[in-house]
Amino acid sequence: MSPLVSTNAPLAALPGLSNQALTLLLAAVGVVVLLWGFERYRTTFSRVELGIAVAVAFGLLTVAFAPGLYWTLAGAFNLESRFILIQILTNVTFLVLIFYLVSQLNTSQRTIGDLTRSLTVQQASAVAEYDERTLYVVIPAYNEADTIGDVLAALPERIHGHLVQAVVVSDGSDDATRRAADEYEAVVVEHPINQGQGGALQTGFDIASDHGADIVVTMDADGQHPVDQLPDLVRPIVDDEADYVLGSRYRGEDNSGNSMTRRGGIRTFTWLINRLAKTDITDCTNGFRAIRGSRLADLTLTEERFSAPELIIESRKNGLRIVEVPVTIHEREAGETKKPKLGYAVGLARTIFVTWIR
């Protein structure tokens, strides 16, 4: 194997392109990238983008005017060719750019989601204020025109002395969900674009908090959650025995028709949450729950799609007293589940670990 020789010889030109032309091309691209970085910093004060631009421009200008530097670096890493080193550095740069773009995309999505929910909450600004204890029932609904009416019609006027106020968040539905809900005495708001069940819950929580709800219940719009068991669900909060009450089909009765695979997955993720968050629950994905209204502000909620584990772990981290009560879960009255068939387990696992470590 021949030893490496340090040299400042220019890079071999591309076919049809002289060494001088290649040098000028790389230099021009480097200057453009550098100018772009300074412009981004001037207009958005983005130090990250400025740093990336400076690093990329430095690499291009070094290749153009001081390629011998790469011989030195290649020798330090025991590489036979500076081109291998350049390729490695290029790949690393692309990976950094990809991660940065993904981060920017996530930030943009969160910003759009926050704006969407903020505008939607304003739709409920005309809701009457009550001088008595209130229980808000938040119902996320996506294309549930066939079932939302039955759910709202079954709600009682009062539960344990609390005035019941339903809040339906139509999550970008493209059917008659909102019109069906408007026929009942409910606060009905609509996301202009779909935000996921978690996003719809956040909107409902904001509305309930803005109007001083004492207790907030969440339930599905598809008829799976039994309205007649609401008194049992909220009783531990009324009796000041809990701040977060989770309905459990495994302490009660499961008539949901879930497959054996799904039941096994729920038990597995429940076990994982119990280990990480030191809880003692049996049903981590059930959306039939009650929360003390004054404690909602303590929870950091960011998950739009897989909100159930986030709510449990956030409640545990913030010292809410968590209690489970037995409930019965029925099959959907109509329509199909909105849960994704692919990636559901991955989404739950991601939410559990991200919420636990943040």
TrEMBL record:
Domain of life according to the entry: Archaea
Alphabetical UniProt keywords: Membrane, Transferase, Transmembrane, Transmembrane helix
PANTHER family in alphabetical order: RFBJ PROTEIN, UNDECAPRENYL-PHOSPHATE 4-DEOXY-4-FORMAMIDO-L-ARABINOSE TRANSFERASE-RELATED
Provenance organism: Halosimplex carlsbadense 2-9-1
Alphabetized Pfam families for the sequence: DUF2304 (PF10066), Glycos_transf_2 (PF00535)
Keyword Cell membrane included in the entry's annotation: no
Segments traversing the membrane: 20-38, 50-71, 83-102
Stretches assigned to coiled coil: none
Stretches assigned to the Glycosyltransferase 2-like domain: 137-292
Oxidoreductase recorded as keyword: no
GO MF: transferase activity
Signal peptide: none
Name of the protein: Family 2 glycosyl transferase
